[in-house]
Design goal:
single chain, about 450 residues, six-stranded mixed β-sheet, 15 helices, about 35% helix
Length: about 450
């Protein structure tokens, strides 16, 4: 058994070097905690999928004024950008610029930490617990001894769509973040995008910027399209944490929206959204996901105004169409994908022939389908289970992962979008930076080493 003092001398191992893992590492190093940051794709280190994009048309969906990496220094990013006034801080900058910001922060933190920080280029395959420590085994056989492991795996790729999986590869792109997915499409006439959220908007913009001059049809169950931020920054009137629940809360938000506008009504809820989610029962949360989630998403997760304008211009020109319907089947015919769907509110089936189909239906939450060896091992060993809604990993409010029996573990934790089932709103920078800041303080507590139960 490793002694208390020896355990404290071990690093915290963070599996995943995207936004969540990088920011947690930076915060831990600020507190003097040793860190081993493990990332299998060096190109995504300190960037992840979202901020690792190379495409300048992919803008942040949050104003620069609210994109500081640190909750205790709200203007940090604006200073880094050298924005001198409010108009500049009101801008939506390219995500690749934000990726550069994150990487510089990590390099600076590593330089200051010296031997207390490791960045490991490798894939974590398994985690064993014993002797008062955790041991992460990498694909090359190396083992990282640590006092705790934090899973920071980011968003998973979209869930496989049974209707589309039979299409050949040249007609179907299951992962919209695959950089090769939009190559060589300039000469095509018609593309179908399944799903209408922010990822779908990214794909449409990338197609247009790559020279695609044809038509894009966006198909989703309700035919909703993302709404846009206002041109100028919001003036949010703070409200106390609303004690209402369910339908009463929805009615109150609608009334408030009529008074001050929907953006103000939704933005005022932001500091309280996680608490509101946690107060609702599992059944009530499930009803929200089933009936209200698509409407919440388009009001809460918005487009930069310039992005919305580009999409509207494509709509006006007849090159972009949003369709509401349910996918029923797909097959290949005449070198195209023929996709069958049932229009919303109708009984009949319609068909559309397209040259390429993109799956933008949102990240998969089924842990059994995720291609991450370390997660597969932890599932099989009973150290991890999915949350009740199938959104990601089951954790408690501190981020401690629950095992198969429902017990929270001190040596295995998780941060970022994979903890959505517990926090709901945990995909945007402002939410994740608060989460990792709190977790870093918890792990840095001089009395915390990790439980002895694993």
């Amino acid at each position: 058994m490793i002694s208390h003092n020896a355990a404290r001398d071990l690093p915290i191992a963070i599996v995943g070097g995207g936004f969540s893992g990088t920011l947690l590492a930076i915060n831990l190093l600020r507190y003097g905690v040793k860190v081993a940051l493990i990332e299998r794709n060096s190109a995504q280190l300190a960037k992840g999928v979202a901020f690792g994009t190379r495409r300048p048309e992919h803008l942040l969906n949050v104003r620069a004024s609210n994109m500081s990496a640190f909750p205790d220094d709200a203007k940090h990013f604006a200073r880094w950008m050298d924005f001198a006034d409010a108009d500049e801080a009101n801008r939506f900058v390219p995500r690749l610029t934000y990726g550069t910001y994150l990487r510089e922060l990590l390099v600076e933190a590593l330089a200051k930490a010296g031997p207390d920080a490791q960045v490991i280029d490798g894939e974590a395959c398994s985690v064993d617990f014993g002797d008062g420590a955790a041991h992460v085994r990498l694909a090359d056989g190396d083992v990282v001894d640590c006092r705790a492991v934090v899973l920071a795996l980011g968003n998973f790729p979209p869930a496989p769509h049974g209707v589309l999986e039979g299409l050949p590869g040249h007609l179907y792109s299951p992962d919209p973040w695959d950089r090769s997915a939009i190559e060589g499409l300039a000469a095509l006439d018609h593309v179908l995008v399944v799903g209408s959220g922010l990822t779908a908007a990214d794909v449409v913009l990338s197609l247009e910027s790559s020279g695609f001059g044809g038509k894009v049809t966006v198909l989703s169950r309700r035919g909703l399209k993302p709404l846009a931020h206002a041109e100028s920054g919001p003036v949010v009137v703070p409200i106390s944490d609303p004690d209402l629940r369910g339908a009463d809360l929805v009615r109150a938000v609608r009334r408030r929206a009529e008074e001050i506008g929907w953006r103000g009504a939704v933005d005022a809820l932001r500091p309280h959204t996680q608490n509101i989610w946690r107060r609702h029962s599992t059944a009530a949360q499930a009803r929200f996901l089933r009936h209200l989630r698509p409407y919440w998403d388009i009001h809460r997760h918005r487009l930069a105004p310039s992005v919305a304008q580009r999409l509207e211009a494509m709509e006006s020109a007849g090159r972009l169409q949003y369709v509401a319907g349910k996918l029923c089947g797909a097959d290949e015919a005449g070198g195209q994908a023929v996709v069958h769907y049932r229009p919303r509110g109708q009984d009949g089936i319609e068909a559309i022939a397209v040259d390429r189909v993109f799956n933008c239906a949102g990240p998969d939450g089924d842990l059994r389908r995720v291609e991450a060896p370390v997660l597969t091992h932890l599932l099989e060993a009973g150290h991890v289970r999915g949350d009740v809604h199938g959104l990601g990993v089951d954790v408690d409010h501190l981020g401690r992962v629950r095992d198969a029996a429902g017990n929270a573990q001190d040596r295995l934790l998780a941060v970022g979008p994979i903890t959505k089932g517990e926090a709901w709103e945990i995909v945007a920078v402002p939410d994740i930076r608060r989460q990792v800041w709190g977790l870093a303080r918890f792990l840095a507590d001089e009395h915390w080493v990790g439980g002895e139960g694993l």
